[in-house]
Amino acid sequence: MVDGVTIALRAPDGAAGVGFGKVLRDITPLTKALESGRALAEGLQQSNVLIRRWSGAIQHWTAGCERLYGWTAEEAGGKIADALLETVYPDTRR
Questions:
Q1: Hey, CA dihedral for 79, 59, 85, 67, is it positive or negative?
Q2: Which of 13, 16, 67, 73 is geometrically suited to a Cys-Cys bond with 61, CB 3.0 to 4.6 A?
Q3: What is the DSSP secondary structure assignment for residue 32, as one 8-state letter?
Q4: What is the tens place of the pLDDT at every residue in 37-60?
Q5: Is 64 helix (H, G, I), strand (E, B) or coil?
Q6: How far is it, in rounded angstroms, from Cα 23 to Cα 44?
Q7: Are 44 and 21 in contact (CB under 8 A)?
Q8: How many angstroms separate the CA atoms of 88 and 81, rounded?
């Protein structure tokens, strides 16, 4: 795949056009990287992935999480993850 730019070339006095300049570049690697990124994003959306802020608030909730936990992304978004999931931590005081 190729991307290009065409520029009108003018005489030094700026009055008359003397031609055109064209720059082309191969964007095949960029296109492949974008396709790979899209495939990865689609795969992650089906996985159980949640992203939370340092505060614990859920920022992103995938379709995999919806299936696993039962809450939609809209319901889970902004909630504190530990409270929503009723996280229980082991007692390490011994």
A1: positive
A2: 73
A3: H
A4: 999 988 888 899 999 999 999 999
A5: helix
A6: 37
A7: no
A8: 12
Mean pLDDT, residues 26-35 taken together: 93
Calculate the CA dihedral of residues 42, 48, 53, 58 and round it to 10 degrees: 100
Angle at 42 between CA 37 and CA 43, to 5 degrees: 95
Residue for token digits 């030094």?
A: 12
| Neighbour count for residue 66 (Cβ, 10 Å) | 16
Question: What are the phi and psi torsion angles at 89 (to 5°)?
Answer: -100, 145
Terminal Cα distance for the chain, rounded = 64
The sign of the torsion formed by the CA atoms of 74, 75, 79, 81 equals negative
CB 55 within 8 A of CB 31: no
Mean pLDDT of the chain: 90
